Amino acid sequence: MFLAIDGPDGERQAALAEFPFFVGRQPENHLVLADSRVSRTHARILREAEGLWIEDAGSRLGITVNGDAVKRQELRAGDIVEVGPYRLTLRTPTPDAFARLREVLEVVRSMEGTFSPQRILDAIVDAALRITSSQRGFLFLRRAGAVTMAAARSEGGECLSEECIRVPRRLIDEAISKRDAYVLNFDTEQSFDPGQTVVLLDLRSSVFVPLPRADGVLYLDSRITSSDLASGKRELLETLALEATTVIESARGIEERQHRRKLEDELSLARTIQQSLLPRTFPDCGWMRSWGVNIPSRQIGGDSFDVHQLSEDEWLISIADVSGKGAGAALLASLIQGALFMSGSDILGAVTKLNRFILDRSQGEQYATMFLGVLSRDGLLRYINAGHVAPLVVGRASLDSSGMPVGLIEIATWEEQQVHLEKGDRLIAYSDGLSDALDVNQLGTTDAELKETLKQFTSPEDDVTVLVVDFEPPCFTLPKLN
Fold it and tell me: Helix or strand or coil: residue 124?
């Protein structure tokens, strides 16, 4: 039995090959009807002792059978089921061989709407088993240069393990290189060198169906009957091979999309985690106030910054830029941020330990520039600039580098330097993603000017980070940044 489908996207067919058979909008259904008037899982068709039944699966708009709204109804050939804008007519296939093939192929085609590549491959093997009346079927595909088993099924629809096939792999390899389907029949009373393992399994026949464009082969065998490719079976298998090749390519596309979607989801989660490690609140009252923003060039980036209180009289401020982009840089940036958070006021010791840690694990392949400082209530700023672009004390000085980037060479040394901030001084630290993109003289110094400058970095080529620290400001309001 199969469903003849007539809807907004044209006419097609879907074989009822698996029960319960689900109908709905979401991709996991056996029959996918992509329309907003169709619920995610709209209906299901059941096989019971007395025949086929359809049930409403809690849909929003319900179903009708031959014009009558129903919750559950027995189905007979010719019945018309309406699901949203779709008309599904239950049909019985004609008995000729090619009508049988059409039914088989509809099983395969119906799998194209699913997001399970394995179900697609299983359906191809099931279709070949029906055509050849074989007992077991195996699908082999060449992936990354190696031939691997992609699906294995019994005539009863059971999944088989790779241990179930013991034919010499050279027979499979030879079949992949051929273009036409062929049969090997075995007389167990005679010796047969190419397939001694086949004989030991008491197999009567093996059928090989090459899938040239898919770089694979369908292998089917039987212990009961000998096979032949007469009575139109060869044409059926060749047609199946062409259809299967198209569907396998579709399955590979689904796998690639699933992989990309999974990667995107993982990157989105990583971005959420990385952004949550940045300061959630900033000091906005008292003698030290600050704000900052980080704009990664990708979903995750290699820049980080932090401002946290060491005591009532000291704040630790830091900004770091890891070499490279992507996940590796983001992981190291988060590690550096965590290490600096635990470092306390000994900034020279913190930088020295970080250098040794990064160098031991990356062997100089990754490194980071950073600015690390401790600001005291009396205005004293002790800092180390490890190869980072020089932060600005607006209108007074730039805090130039006093050493190599961290993690670059083992013998690197750094010098702790000092500067006294005066009441109303503003310190602006930033990463080279900003200084490489524009002249820092155009950066601006007020909150409004900085905010306007940062608006242009919606998709920067490199990570952009800005950290602003105000010492004893006369008045202060945190800027609103998206």
Answer: helix
